[in-house]
Specification:
This protein has helices spanning 33-39, 50-62, 95-99, 110-129, 133-136, 143-152, 157-171, 196-214, 217-232, and strands at 10-14, 17-23, 29-32, 69-78, 81-91. By secondary structure, it is α+β, with helices and mostly antiparallel strands.
C-alpha cells in the first residue's frame, strides 16, 4: 500500500444495506467499520460507535486477529465537496467472526436480524462439523484419579490431602496455620480472587507432580507450598 494513496470507496451490500468498501489490492478489501455498525444499529444517535469499537478490538486482540483492523485515508463527501479523512476499517474476511459477537438491533428492521440468524445457524453447523466443543470442554481429572495416580507412584493419599489442606490454609490467609478441608473451601471464597475450587485442584495437581519428581512427601509439600505462594499470594 502506498502511504500517499487516498482511496475512493466502492459501494457493496452488507446484510442487504449499502456500505463503503475499500479495495486495497486484488486480494484485500476492507469495510468501513462505522458503516458496518450503522447497519447493525449499534451506533449512537450522534453517530459515535466507541463502545462497539472497543468490544470489537478487544475481541480481535483476544483471537490474535488485530491485523484485520486498519485505518485508511478515504475520500468522504461533505456537502458539495470531497475531503480526505482517516477512516477505521476491517478486512472483509474478518467480518464473519466479528459478526458472531454483534447481533443487529431492531432499529435497522427485522430483515438484518433474520440474515444474522441464518448466518449463526451456518456457524453452528460449521462448529459442530469440526467438533469445536473439544477446544473448550476437556476432561478434568477428579480427586480420586489423582489419588490413584499418587498411590500408584508410591505416595500416600491421606498425606496428600493433609498437605493440600494446609496449603489451602496458607493461600486463604487463615490464622494460626489453620488447614482448610475441601468441604470448607467455599466459605472462604471472598479471601481470593480466583475460583477457590479451581485453586485447590491446581494445588492438588501440582502436589502429585512434585511427588513424582521427588518421591518424597515432605519435599513435595515444600515445593507445592512455595509454588502456591508465588502463584496466589501476590
Amino acid at each position: 500500500m502506498n502511504n500517499k494513496t487516498v482511496y475512493k470507496p466502492i459501494i457493496k451490500k452488507f446484510l442487504k444495506q449499502d456500505v463503503r468498501i475499500i479495495k486495497v489490492d486484488t486480494y484485500h478489501e476492507y469495510i468501513v467499520c462505522k458503516d458496518m455498525f450503522d447497519v447493525l444499529g449499534l451506533t449512537d444517535k450522534d453517530g459515535k460507535w466507541n463502545k462497539s469499537k472497543k468490544k470489537m478490538l478487544d475481541f480481535l486482540d483476544g483471537i490474535e486477529e488485530k491485523e484485520g483492523w486498519k485505518s485508511f485515508p478515504l475520500l468522504v463527501k461533505q456537502g458539495k465537496i470531497k475531503t480526505k479523512q482517516i477512516v477505521d476499517c476491517i478486512n472483509i474476511e474478518t467480518v464473519p467472526i466479528v459478526l458472531t459477537q454483534f447481533q443487529p438491533t431492531k432499529r435497522r428492521g427485522e430483515e438484518a436480524l433474520e440474515i444474522w440468524f441464518d448466518f449463526m445457524k451456518f456457524v453452528k453447523v460449521l462448529l459442530e462439523t469440526h467438533s469445536a466443543n473439544k477446544y473448550i470442554i476437556k476432561t478434568k481429572k477428579t480427586q480420586t484419579e489423582m489419588q490413584d495416580e499418587l498411590y500408584n507412584d508410591g505416595g500416600d493419599p491421606m498425606f496428600m490431602n493433609i498437605h493440600v489442606n494446609k496449603i489451602m490454609g496458607v493461600v486463604l490467609r487463615m490464622e494460626d496455620g489453620k488447614s482448610v478441608k475441601k468441604s470448607e473451601i467455599y466459605q472462604f471464597q471472598n479471601r481470593i480472587t480466583e475460583d477457590v475450587g479451581c485453586v485447590r485442584d491446581e494445588i492438588l495437581k501440582t502436589y502429585v507432580t512434585m511427588f513424582k519428581v521427588t518421591e518424597d512427601k515432605e519435599k513435595a509439600y515444600d515445593l507445592t507450598l512455595e509454588w502456591s505462594k508465588k502463584k496466589y499470594l501476590k
